[in-house]
Write a structure and sequence with these properties.
single chain; alpha+beta; four-stranded antiparallel sheet; disordered N terminus
């Protein structure tokens, strides 16, 4: 057994050194077709056997299992069935990173271990079948750490927490920092291998989290344990590993993020940017960065959706100011200057963004640290037509949005 484990580790290390080797010449549909042909298993364990294998051979370390979302460690007495012991004594369950109700309810999608993890039942219920996303303190409703939930932000351990919250009437779940990349690669794997099953249930489920998964894949690259587990699981699934763990460039090549450039400009843009002419040329975010193009400061075309800023692409605002707590007031004075009045709770740097009714970024201004207390700031004149706009005020700790009427 020790020799087998050592071999797996060595294979994983060798493969990580030789990353970027999975069909490097292929892109998009051609790449996805090749991944399916070469890495999709036709044989998986039964679901009961898959769970037993995960709990006893993939994730069991020193007779302990750990919840991937909260970090809750539990002890499994030697000789006991790990799955039964974990469930009966600690309510540990099997998390389907791609939810069962979204296309993983039966057959291979349900039992494929490349997207299954051990989790504590309470936090698993909190995740439910919600999409993954990034939340801030303002729109988070619950934080999970070890075996405890919090209704207020536990600042000192925030990176070790998973959390759930709501943006634009959609409930999102954000895993703790050290599991974000794992989530992304499990999701890219599932959607490559089982796209038909997923789209049949909810064709938008992957798309609403595509950009944030892309981001997490690069911010949290695979460690030796993730690589090793990919090979261990592959040993039970026709030798088929998760290729997205072995080569993180697959995410950008198979599921690229597109931006736009002009013939002569030095920036890349989101579609609809006021600085993007009709001659906008479609290009992947990766190629834009590689060619030396910079990010437009107006449309802010990062691979982060508008919802990250507390806005949706439409006329409805979320994260509105609670009644009786006038944290932000916006108005236009007689000189057509836009004035914001802020009740700054903490000394902080902050950013103000103005969006049109379609969610397109009109302008963004960043301010150095402002002292606590009520402050009035003149944003200057804007050449805007009459209508409805949205103003978003964001610090490191909170994000507030409010409607602005221009007449």
């Amino acid at each position: 057994m020790k020799k087998f484990t050592l071999l797996i580790v060595l294979l994983g290390i060798c493969f990580s050194i030789n990353a970027q080797n999975v069909f490097p010449e292929l892109l998009e549909d051609d790449l996805k077709d090749s991944l399916i042909s070469n890495y999709k298993t036709s044989t998986v364990l039964s679901y009961d056997n898959a769970r037993d294998t995960l709990f006893s051979r993939v994730y069991l370390e020193n007779d302990s299992l750990t919840c991937v979302y909260s970090g809750f460690p539990i002890y499994i007495p030697p000789g006991e069935d790990p799955t039964t012991s974990a469930y009966n004594n600690y309510n540990f369950q099997t998390e389907h990173t791609w939810p069962q109700s979204k296309g993983a309810k039966t057959g291979n999608p349900k039992s494929d271990m490349h997207h299954l993890y051990p989790v504590w039942g309470s936090v698993n219920g909190s995740r439910g079948n919600n999409p993954f996303g990034e939340l801030n303190s303002w729109n988070t409703t619950i934080w999970w750490h070890i075996d405890t939930s919090f209704n207020k932000e536990p600042i000192n351990i925030i990176d070790e927490c998973s959390k759930r919250g709501q943006i634009s009437e959609i409930t999102y779940f954000e895993p703790r920092e050290d599991h974000k990349g794992n989530v992304a690669r499990a999701m890219f794997y599932f959607y490559t291998m089982y796209r038909v099953e997923g789209d049949l249930v909810d064709i938008d489920f992957f798309n609403i989290q595509h950009e944030i998964l892309y981001k997490w894949n690069y911010e949290d690259p695979p460690d030796d344990k993730e690589i090793e587990r990919s090979y261990i699981i592959g040993n039970y699934q026709e030798g088929k590993i998760n290729p997205f763990v072995s080569d993180i460039s697959l995410a950008r090549r198979a599921f690229p993020i597109f931006v736009y450039k002009t013939d002569t400009g030095t920036k890349y843009h989101r579609i609809g940017c006021q600085h993007l002419s009709q001659s906008g040329i479609k290009i992947t975010l990766y190629d834009a960065k590689k060619s030396g193009l910079g990010s437009c400061s107006v449309c802010d075309p990062l691979f982060i959706p508008f919802s990250y800023y507390g806005l949706e692409t439409g006329s409805k605002i979320i994260d509105v100011i609670p009644e009786g707590k006038e944290l932000l007031n916006i108005y236009q004075n007689q000189n057509n200057e836009i004035i914001i009045s802020i009740n700054q709770v903490y000394p902080s740097e902050f950013t103000v963004r103005i969006f049109d009714i379609y969610g397109r970024l009109i302008d963004m201004k960043s301010f150095e640290k402002i002292l606590a207390g009520r402050r009035k700031i003149n944003l200057g004149q804007y050449n805007l037509i009459d209508g409805i706009y949205f103003m978003n005020y964001a610090t490191a700790k909170r994000s507030i949005s409010q409607k602005l009427f221009l007449r």
